[in-house]
């Protein structure tokens, strides 16, 4: 019986992740979201620049907090809050983390914080 409960629990977790990762899923409409946006990304700090035309950003949302995980040795941006603008677009709010717009299909970013600049123009 214990083994059956474990298997059932694992199936439920897997189904939740699969539903949360659907490409047409809007991150604003759920409390749990994981999605990958692909496109142009860049990062600049102290005269050093990292750019990628085929970069990716994995976005996670738990509750009201978004986290942006970059590849290509670009530092992550975490703990971002958003407010609704228009139909289904959300714009970041808070000190130093403004300049991020996200919806179900696009992610655009221009963040300047602590002498560093992140940019992104990505789609899902």
From TrEMBL:
PROSITE patterns: PROKAR_LIPOPROTEIN
Name recorded for this polypeptide: Lipocalin-like domain-containing protein
Organism: Pedobacter caeni
